[in-house]
Amino acid sequence: MQRTADKYYAGVRGLVLLVIDPAKVKVGVREEPSGSWLLENPDVSHELYTGELYPHIYGAINLDAVLRVVAYEPDSDGVFGAVPSVD
To answer: In the chain, which end has fewer C-beta atoms inside a 10 angstrom radius, N or C?
Structure first.
């Protein structure tokens, strides 16, 4: 999450992380390669990818699947620190 936040949202304030129960997401959760990997390798089926997979949700997230909302702010230099504990 930290790498994604720094890559796409460096310096952006007001972001939040949603703690989600995947079993409750009505549109389903798919484990896939990162979106940037898919864009950089459009001719390769993601089923052939052997690296790290990330959860993707395609559609609206129903509110009962959201367990908690956690503030995630960048440091004063615009870089995000470690993801806060969500326990």
So the answer is: C
3-state secondary structure the chain: CHHHHHHHHCCCCCCEEEEECHHHCCCCCEEECCHHHHHHCCCCCHHHCCCCCEEECCCCCCHHHEEEEEECCECCCCCECCCCCCC
Q: Are 8 and 74 in contact (CB under 8 A)?
A: no
For the chain, give the mean pLDDT. Answer: 86
Q: What is the pTM of this model?
A: 0.73
Give long-range contacts, CB 8 A cutoff, 24+ apart: 37-41: none
Residue 29: name the closest of 4, 53, 47, 3 by CA. Answer: 53
Q: How far apart are the first and last CA of the chain?
A: 16
